[in-house]
Amino acid sequence: MSFADETPEALEQAEIARAPSFRLLRRLVKRPVAVVAVVVILVIYGAGIFAPIVSPYGFNEPDFDNRFAGLSLEHPFGTDRLGRDTLSRLIWSAQTTVIISFAAVVTGALVFGVTAGLVAGYFGGKTDAVIMRVADTLFSVPTILLLLIINSTMERRVDSLFRDVENFLGTDWIVSSGAPSYFLVFGALAIFGWVGMARLVRSQVLSLKQSVFVTAAEASGASTPRILFLHLLPNVANLLIVGITLSLGAAAVAEVGLTFLGIGVQAPHPSFGAMIFDYSGVTNVREHPQLILFPAAVISALMLSFNLLGDVLTEELSPRRR
Amino acid sequence: MQGIAGYVIRRLLLAPLILLFISVVTFSLGRWAPGDYVDIQAGPRASDELKDRIKEERGLNDPVYEQYFRYMANIFQGDLGQSVKYRGQDVEDVIFPRIWVTLQYNVIVLILTFSIGIPLGTWAALKRGTWMDPLSIGTFLFFASIPVVVSIPLLQWLFAVKLSWLPSGGWNVHEFWGIEIGIFSREAILPILILTLPGIAGIARYMRSQVLEVLDQDFIRTARAKGLHESAVVTRHVTRNAMLPVATIMGFELAALTAGSLFVERFLGIPGIGQFAFETIGSRDYDSLMAIVLLGSAIFIMTNLIVDIAYGFIDPRIRLAGGAGAETT
Lengths: 322, 329
Hints:
The complex is a heterodimer of chains A (322) and B (329). Chain A has 322 residues and is mostly helical. Chain A has helices spanning 9-13, 21-29, 32-49, 51-54, 86-123, 125-139, 143-169, 179-208, 212-219, 224-232, 237-260, 272-278, 282-287, 289-317. Chain A has one domain: MetI-like (MetI-like fold, Orthogonal Bundle). Chain A contains 14 helices and no strands. In chain A, helix 5 (86-123) runs parallel beside helix 8 (179-208), helix 11 runs parallel beside helix 12 and helix 11 packs antiparallel against helix 14 (289-317). Chain A is globular, with a radius of gyration of 22 Å. Chain B is globular, with a radius of gyration of 25 Å. Chain B has a two-stranded antiparallel sheet. Chain B is mainly alpha-helical. In chain B, a hairpin with a 2-residue loop joins strand 1 (174-176) and strand 2 (179-181). Chain B is built from 13 helices and two strands, in the order αααααααββαααααα. Classes of the chains: A mainly alpha (322), B mainly alpha (329).
């Protein structure tokens, strides 16, 4: 379980070749484990994205005549204590995973992380020092404690913020859609999620900025944003792929963990963390093992696939192993 | 290029600044939460005048920055404040026994993790290319990937219910020389097991890749060529060199352990600091919460600093890359 290490040290130290990405794809296809991992990730994320279409029931449709139903054709994975269909809850939980992990990685790792890394590496000097000291600070606090504090203290504030937005727009679906708790969880994860990516990108840019193509771009009068995002960014693309793979997995498991502790996505909105927590007592595990085993298996398979894919990518991109 | 001394001094100077920043953030977040401890302890039936009078007495109606300065002034005089959850007790008297509980089993977990993970990873690397290779990689990957939220309930069920080997939770202490020690009771086995499994797997995975890297190097071929016994090559040349980078993941290991402890304590009912952190937030026990966060951060900062310095001393090739551009070469 890792909240802080979105990008493991191993990766930071690995020398990642800057080959064009399509060659990477060709090499990946030749590795059966990688293909399996990608398929598992795509199935779970696909189920989450298309939840409204593929899910047989809603995530909160109780059926009190069918409580704790076993596996049947009608309910392939059975039902829970309120008679809610487990398969549907799993699919909607996958949607939560998709929303949180994408939002956290796009805002944290991609927007903040990559920009901070590019700027720090390219400008150097004071800018670099300031950005990296902030990164060090975030790195040297017990992340889980601060997540705990942020999520439990801000919950009602964020809720009332969204209510104000609702009143302003004259709608009433935003708060009931669970948006405040989703926002809070991915926001909190993004605050800490950019550090690893920023360090990765910075260390690459530090060596890249000595290259001839950067000097050439500077000499031809290219603007700084152009150099950063059109010249430097494409050259760290492979690094981004590995970073994103690992960050997605870390964000997904962090959401499950926070929800398990009761400070993540709030009921009745589904999450693997809530599904596991609800039936995690020893009596429940003994009497209704299917209710904990299915969500546990799905989240474990997802983590396994992300780690496997991360391993294969690091290996394929490392120049020494080729 | 700066010397190690300059680097250490800069890091040591930075540490209080980081702590100061953390204290501001935590303090304001805590005060920003709706309601304070007076509201929570007095309950909904207490009159507003009464609550207001108590708040006035405790200074809770003052502007937040005033409360912050007062708190920091006390901190510098060594006064961590009073616990609210356990009324009349000083914060240090409330949190230190709990830190002691967490510390005991965390130290055991760290020792087990490194002392089993390192040889296991080395062994797996030496077996590269045999039938055991995919098996060991798969096992490590499996145990490193299972989230604690999955392993806690399942292992609890397996050992406490199915096999009835271990108690399902709690914490039990035996007294040795007047000190309460809990790690020799059967209650401690389950949390240690839950936290050690992913730790060992992670270290073994990392160690394996480091050993493979070292095995490729020329000096290993030289050592073998000059007729050194294979066991001497492994223990003296391979393991030593591969272990260096493993020291750097101490920080990661500590972060993972802190998070894991929180889950384990909460779920298995262990009266440690993670469990208490939850209570302090629920009861708005401001001073205790501040003390937990500041102490935790201080431990993190010191650990990372010690690891970095030790690393620089062990391996003279490493220039401590604290400043900008040190890695450019």
